[in-house]
Write a structure and sequence with these properties.
By secondary structure, the chain is α+β, with helices and mostly antiparallel strands. It has one domain. The chain has two helices and seven strands; from the N terminus they run H-H-E-E-E-E-E-E-E.
Length: 130
Protein backbone atom coordinates (compact mmCIF):
# COMPACT_ATOMS: atom_id res chain seq x y z
CA UNK A 1 0.00 0.00 0.00
CA UNK A 2 2.86 2.35 0.89
CA UNK A 3 4.52 1.59 -2.46
CA UNK A 4 1.33 2.48 -4.34
CA UNK A 5 0.95 5.74 -2.41
CA UNK A 6 4.58 6.69 -3.05
CA UNK A 7 4.34 5.95 -6.76
CA UNK A 8 1.10 7.97 -7.00
CA UNK A 9 2.75 10.90 -5.20
CA UNK A 10 5.84 10.64 -7.43
CA UNK A 11 3.66 10.52 -10.54
CA UNK A 12 1.58 13.47 -9.37
CA UNK A 13 4.65 15.58 -8.53
CA UNK A 14 6.21 14.71 -11.91
CA UNK A 15 2.99 15.74 -13.66
CA UNK A 16 2.88 19.03 -11.76
CA UNK A 17 6.56 19.69 -12.58
CA UNK A 18 6.03 19.05 -16.29
CA UNK A 19 2.92 21.26 -16.47
CA UNK A 20 4.54 24.13 -14.56
CA UNK A 21 7.45 24.63 -16.95
CA UNK A 22 7.49 28.03 -18.62
CA UNK A 23 6.37 27.84 -22.21
CA UNK A 24 8.91 28.66 -24.86
CA UNK A 25 7.53 30.73 -27.70
CA UNK A 26 8.50 28.93 -30.84
CA UNK A 27 9.17 30.84 -34.01
CA UNK A 28 8.51 29.83 -37.58
CA UNK A 29 11.56 28.72 -39.56
CA UNK A 30 13.26 30.77 -42.24
CA UNK A 31 11.82 28.40 -44.86
CA UNK A 32 8.28 28.95 -43.52
CA UNK A 33 8.82 32.73 -43.57
CA UNK A 34 10.20 32.46 -47.10
CA UNK A 35 7.04 30.65 -48.22
CA UNK A 36 4.89 33.42 -46.74
CA UNK A 37 6.83 36.03 -48.69
CA UNK A 38 6.90 34.10 -51.95
CA UNK A 39 3.31 32.88 -52.00
CA UNK A 40 1.31 35.43 -50.02
CA UNK A 41 3.16 38.64 -50.89
CA UNK A 42 5.01 38.12 -54.18
CA UNK A 43 2.56 35.52 -55.55
CA UNK A 44 5.42 33.47 -57.00
CA UNK A 45 2.98 30.67 -57.78
CA UNK A 46 1.50 32.86 -60.52
CA UNK A 47 4.76 33.74 -62.29
CA UNK A 48 8.05 32.28 -63.42
CA UNK A 49 11.24 33.47 -61.78
CA UNK A 50 12.78 36.19 -63.94
CA UNK A 51 15.64 38.49 -62.93
CA UNK A 52 14.16 41.35 -64.94
CA UNK A 53 10.82 41.36 -63.14
CA UNK A 54 11.07 41.01 -59.39
CA UNK A 55 13.87 39.88 -57.09
CA UNK A 56 13.46 38.67 -53.53
CA UNK A 57 16.23 38.56 -50.93
CA UNK A 58 16.36 37.24 -47.39
CA UNK A 59 18.54 37.91 -44.40
CA UNK A 60 19.75 34.44 -43.38
CA UNK A 61 19.45 35.10 -39.66
CA UNK A 62 16.64 36.31 -37.44
CA UNK A 63 16.44 39.92 -36.31
CA UNK A 64 16.02 40.45 -32.58
CA UNK A 65 14.28 43.19 -30.64
CA UNK A 66 16.57 46.24 -30.67
CA UNK A 67 18.17 45.50 -34.07
CA UNK A 68 17.90 48.05 -36.88
CA UNK A 69 17.73 48.05 -40.66
CA UNK A 70 19.00 51.23 -42.33
CA UNK A 71 18.21 52.59 -45.80
CA UNK A 72 19.07 55.97 -47.30
CA UNK A 73 15.84 57.48 -45.98
CA UNK A 74 14.50 55.14 -43.26
CA UNK A 75 15.56 53.44 -40.06
CA UNK A 76 13.54 50.35 -39.21
CA UNK A 77 13.73 49.73 -35.45
CA UNK A 78 12.91 46.10 -34.74
CA UNK A 79 10.53 45.75 -31.79
CA UNK A 80 10.09 41.96 -31.86
CA UNK A 81 11.86 38.95 -33.34
CA UNK A 82 11.37 38.57 -37.08
CA UNK A 83 12.76 37.39 -40.38
CA UNK A 84 13.66 40.16 -42.85
CA UNK A 85 13.11 40.10 -46.61
CA UNK A 86 13.77 42.69 -49.28
CA UNK A 87 11.82 42.79 -52.54
CA UNK A 88 13.27 44.73 -55.46
CA UNK A 89 10.26 45.52 -57.63
CA UNK A 90 12.27 47.09 -60.46
CA UNK A 91 15.63 45.27 -60.62
CA UNK A 92 16.65 46.73 -63.97
CA UNK A 93 16.53 50.31 -62.65
CA UNK A 94 19.11 52.22 -60.65
CA UNK A 95 18.14 53.48 -57.20
CA UNK A 96 15.81 55.07 -56.12
CA UNK A 97 12.81 53.01 -57.30
CA UNK A 98 9.94 50.97 -55.82
CA UNK A 99 10.89 48.22 -53.41
CA UNK A 100 9.46 46.54 -50.32
CA UNK A 101 10.83 45.68 -46.89
CA UNK A 102 9.07 42.68 -45.37
CA UNK A 103 9.15 41.64 -41.73
CA UNK A 104 7.75 38.16 -40.97
CA UNK A 105 7.12 37.62 -37.27
CA UNK A 106 7.30 34.42 -35.21
CA UNK A 107 3.54 33.89 -35.32
CA UNK A 108 3.46 34.07 -39.18
CA UNK A 109 2.07 37.60 -39.31
CA UNK A 110 3.96 40.08 -41.43
CA UNK A 111 4.28 43.72 -42.34
CA UNK A 112 5.24 45.13 -45.72
CA UNK A 113 6.73 48.60 -45.99
CA UNK A 114 6.99 50.23 -49.41
CA UNK A 115 10.03 52.44 -49.92
CA UNK A 116 12.52 53.41 -52.64
CA UNK A 117 15.91 52.37 -51.21
CA UNK A 118 17.53 49.02 -50.40
CA UNK A 119 18.92 48.25 -46.96
CA UNK A 120 22.52 49.24 -46.23
CA UNK A 121 23.33 45.61 -45.40
CA UNK A 122 22.34 44.56 -48.93
CA UNK A 123 25.48 42.41 -49.30
CA UNK A 124 24.35 40.19 -46.39
CA UNK A 125 21.12 39.26 -48.18
CA UNK A 126 20.73 36.07 -50.18
CA UNK A 127 18.61 35.97 -53.29
CA UNK A 128 15.68 33.56 -53.37
CA UNK A 129 14.86 31.90 -56.68
CA UNK A 130 11.68 29.99 -57.33
Amino acid sequence: MLAIALSLMLGLSLLITINCRPTIHECISLKQAENIVLYKIVRADTMEWDTTKIRVYELPYMLEKGDTIFTNDTIFAINKRCWYFFINDEPTLRWAHPCRHVFVYCNSTYSVVKREWPPHNYEELKEIKW
